Amino acid sequence: MHLDEDAVMSTVQSEPMNPVRLLLVDDHLMVTEALASRLSAAMDLWVAGRCTTADPNLLDIVRGLRPDVITIEVEPLGPAAGEVLRALVAVRPEARVVVLSSDHHLGHAVEAARAGVAAWVAKEQGAAELETVLRGVCQGKSWFPPEMLGEILRELRGDVSRAKEHEVLLDVLSPRERDVLLSMMDGKRGGQIAQDLLISTDTVRTHTRNIFAKLDVHSRLEAVRVARAAGLKPPEHAR
């Protein structure tokens, strides 16, 4: 990671202000250097740090820098892009995540929106437009390319409908079956579930079979997927 110390000192010595703190995440060093140089010229933007998508300390960097906006190139992440984006949103909920990418795959943009990304900006767009987007997301606005927006909205509306259907499914579970399902979501296996809930492993197996039958699924993975789609979350103390 690179911290822009000159920018830090310049900000400290200038008149009091609260510039937008930026973290640039990109594997192309020349791109981030050029972008940092351009953005640092704006009085209300401060490039607090830069790192690559492959940095093993990415989440710790986010925790330490406390950025207001994170820009990230998702193309190098491949299939892991959605998981990384969700992790960024989770570790720093106050920050707005902006995908700055040469990737034009509509499915990837939909996945990014599902992960909680605030904007998707093509790298070929001008720096002035990027600055506008960065300022806008800090005001609670979102931005996706117009040619992508229709499909993204359709997919998100579909997600809401499916979540409502799954929520109705969860209503058929007994309180104890719901407890077992919550334990599954927390990654626990049969023996640990039995110990935590003070029941036998045979009883856990019975509840698990009932859960599978009621949710019309055939595995723990499918059951957990249905639960998450319905918005069911493990209690914080269980994590």
Task: Describe what this molecule looks like in 3D.
This protein has a five-stranded parallel β-sheet, with helices on both faces. The longest helix has 25 residues. α4 packs parallel to α5, α5 packs across α7 and α9 crosses α10. It is α/β, with parallel strands linked by helices. About 4% of the residues have low confidence. It has eleven helices and five strands; from the N terminus they run αβαβαβαβαβαααααα.
Instruction: Give the count of helical stretches.
Output: 11
Order of helices and strands: HEHEHEHEHEHHHHHH
Question: In what range is the share of β-strand residues?
Answer: 5-15%
Total strands: the figure is 5
Largest sheet: 5 strands, parallel
Could you give the distance between the termini? 30 Å
Q: How large is the radius of gyration? A: 22 Å
* Average pLDDT level: 86
Shape from CA axes?
elongated
Q: Order of strands across the widest beta sheet?
A: 2-1-3-4-5
Unreliable segments (pLDDT under 50, ≥5 consecutive)?
7-16
Features:
239 residues; alpha/beta; 5-stranded parallel beta sheet; 11 helices
SSE layout:
Layout: H1 5-13, E1 20-25, H2 29-40, E2 45-51, H3 58-65, E3 69-72, H4 81-91, E4 96-101, H5 106-115, E5 119-122, H6 127-138, H7 146-170, H8 175-185, H9 190-197, H10 201-215, H11 220-229
Parallel strand pairs: 1-2, 1-3, 3-4, 4-5
